[in-house]
Design brief:
Pdz3 Domain, 474 residues, single chain, Thrombin, subunit H
Length: 474
């Protein structure tokens, strides 16, 4: 079956290169050797598959033992509320899930998706030869949906995959996807790279995904996308599907992002990445025409963080970032990706369109500063935001939360369950703007205003770029 799928591709290539006459002769030829008859991915699979593992997780959840029917007023007319009260409350239940992972070092270092092990209390790794290991979490990075695990090999070197340079991939390259779909066991599928630099798929704000038509299904998450040289080019993470199964549109996190995250977690337990210190917008066809660009691409800078890397590197409002380290930039998500896969320290070259000409700039690569200190505080007292945790918003905190780096003020980090803040509709990520018409710029200022005892409260927050106000009359 594989030969019938591969041979026409080879013949078509010959026809394009050698011309119609040669193509006609090739079409009439029979295989010249046993090797040609047995064209197969099998040798590649034998090398790569031992490095792909199955991951089984377990966590305890609380479930209600009574049916929702007991909440129905009509039902209660016949059986009464007493029966519902007599039933036991929420019970603990162990919830199991499965996924895949990839060994990236001989000492048992494994990369998988964050969502595969999120909330797990127990993680079991099963190798392709059925050996089982208990795994511990070294670190996770929710923004890129990556996690790094480790198993104790007791000194034994395990098969692993070498990380490739995902920037060398081209649309049309052959790839294999290896994982554990639907829990049926390790499975290998083949396909091509369907597209590169997919950013607008709503999975992560930091990734520029590899798209493939190799079949990826539930359970493949965290598995390997392998190139024809047997190297890891991506971690399979999501699919586009209307049915829950593969429709030939799968997405993988590029190996260059995987490398950066693993390096940061190994060094300090968390991913570290440079910050840009500016924000911008996609260049539309109309903008491109007005500024003299031959076509619409790049990111137009709309705001700069004072004293940040972008400003010190020479960027100005209105500049259009066209390339970073020689890689063309299409939109703000790709710009963030290109910065995020770089290591802090040194500089990176930017190709910028300014006015009517191209300008070359060097951007310093440095960590986002924790200025001002976050001073996380759980709010208490008698006001509508009791039970919320607030903090000073710094570039470092904005980076952690995936927010615009130029954001400032006081942010709500968490809202306690059943708290006043939750009941009044406040959410994590809200930026506290005003309390009773007084601007809030720090945790200290917020505490001062919330200690007042007014006859009514008017609290304004910014949520996803929109200002929302809550008025409470006492």
């Amino acid at each position: 079956m594989l030969m019938t799928r591969m041979m026409p591709l080879c013949l078509l290539f010959t026809a394009l290169v050698a011309g119609p006459a040669v193509a006609q002769n090739q079409l009439k030829e029979v295989p010249g050797s046993g090797a040609e008859v047995q064209l197969s991915f099998a040798p590649l699979v034998k090398r790569a598959s031992p490095a792909v593992v199955n991951i089984y997780t377990a966590k305890t959840v609380r479930v209600r033992r009574f049916a929702p029917l007991f909440d129905d007023p009509f039902f209660q007319q016949f059986f009464g509320r007493s029966m519902r009260r007599a039933l036991p409350g929420p019970q603990k239940k162990v919830q199991n899930s499965l996924g895949s992972g990839v060994l990236v070092a001989a000492d048992g270092l494994i990369v998988t998706n964050h969502h595969v092990i999120e909330g797990a209390e127990e993680i079991k790794v099963v190798l392709s030869d059925r050996r089982e290991f208990e795994a511990r979490i070294i670190g996770t990075d929710e923004r890129t949906d990556l996690a790094v695990l480790k198993v104790d090999t007791k000194g034994e070197a395990l098969a692993h995959l070498q990380l490739s340079d995902s920037d060398r991939l081209e649309v049309g390259d052959l790839v294999l996807a290896i994982g554990n779909p639907f829990g049926v066991g390790q499975t290998v599928t083949s396909g091509i790279v369907s597209a590169l630099a997919r950013t607008g798929v709503g999975i992560s704000d930091l990734n520029s995904f590899i798209q493939t038509d190799a079949a990826i299904n539930p359970g493949n998450s965290g598995g390997a996308l392998v190139s024809m040289n047997g190297h890891l080019v991506g971690i399979n993470t999501a699919i586009f599907s209307r049915s829950g199964g593969s429709l030939g549109i799968g997405f993988a996190i590029p190996s260059n992002m995987v490398r950066t995250v693993v390096k940061g977690i190994q060094a300090g337990g968390r991913a570290v990445r440079p910050w840009f210190g500016a924000s911008g917008q996609r260049v539309t066809a109309l903008i491109a025409e007005n500024i003299g660009l031959s076509r619409p691409y790049g990111v137009m800078i709309t705001s700069l963080y004072q004293g940040g890397p972008a400003e010190r590197g020479g960027l100005q409002q209105g500049d259009v970032v066209l390339e970073i380290a020689g890689h063309e930039i299409q939109d703000p998500q790709e710009l963030r990706f290109r910065i995020a896969i770089l290591s802090p320290g040194g500089k990176v070259n930017l190709n910028v369109w300014r006015g009517d000409r191209a300008v070359s700039l060097n951007l310093p690569l440095e960590l986002a500063p924790e200025v001002p200190p976050r001073k996380s505080t759980v709010l208490k007292g008698r006001h509508p935001i009791v039970g919320a945790t607030i903090a000073n918003l710094s570039p470092a905190l904005a980076e952690e939360m995936g927010m615009d780096m130029t954001s400032r003020g006081v942010i709500i980090l968490d809202v306690g369950a059943n708290s006043s803040a939750a009941q009044f509709g406040f959410k994590a990520g809200d930026i506290l703007k005003e309390v009773n018409a007084v601007p809030i710029t720090s945790v200290k200022g917020a505490l001062k205003q919330l200690m007042q005892m007014p006859k009514s409260w008017r609290i304004t927050v910014n949520r996803d770029g929109r200002d929302l106000s809550l008025v409470i009359r006492l």
